[in-house]
Amino acid sequence: QVQLVESGGGLVQAGGSLRLSCAASGRTFSMNVMGWFRQAPGVEREFVSAISWSGGRIYYADSVKGRFTISRDNAKNTVYLQMNSLKPEDTATYYCAAKDLAYIAKTPLEYDYWGQGTQVTVSS
Predict the structure, then answer these.
(1) Buried b vs exposed e over 99-117: b needs ≥16 C-beta within 10 Å?
(2) β-bridge pairing 78-83 and 18-26
(3) CA-only gyration radius of the chain, Å
């Protein structure tokens, strides 16, 4: 099992920045691919970004490309999401996820482990 704990969410004005962190414990060697998803009320959980174990493969949703940056520190078992130029439409609960298999996935069902989520609210 892998336990994931997100932190770094909060309230920020439009144009501002936040840095989310996701700390992992347990069978961290299972954290082959790490992803960030978000979910707003009444909306399905959507893919934000994902990164491979080495960091050599990174994917972003079109809606965040150029504004968000994903990274990971395997020595610290932590993955980050730097969010810049935030917009009100970025408001959501952000979830960290991990999957055992090495291929990058953009659908929630393909991830094996999830954090509890951290709220990000962007005011206009």
Answers:
(1) beeeebbeebeebebbbeb
(2) antiparallel
(3) 13
Look-up of token digits 């920020």: 12
Q: Please state the length of the chain.
A: 124
CA dist list (Å): 21 to 4, 66, 84, 124: 10, 19, 14, 24
What residue has token string 């130029």? 85
- Under 8 Å CB-to-CB from 66, ≥6 apart: which residues? none
pLDDT at 114 over 80: yes
Tell me: pLDDT of 31 over 80.
no
Per-residue pLDDT, 30: 62
Residues 6+ away with beta carbon under 8 Å from 30? 2, 98, 100, 112, 113
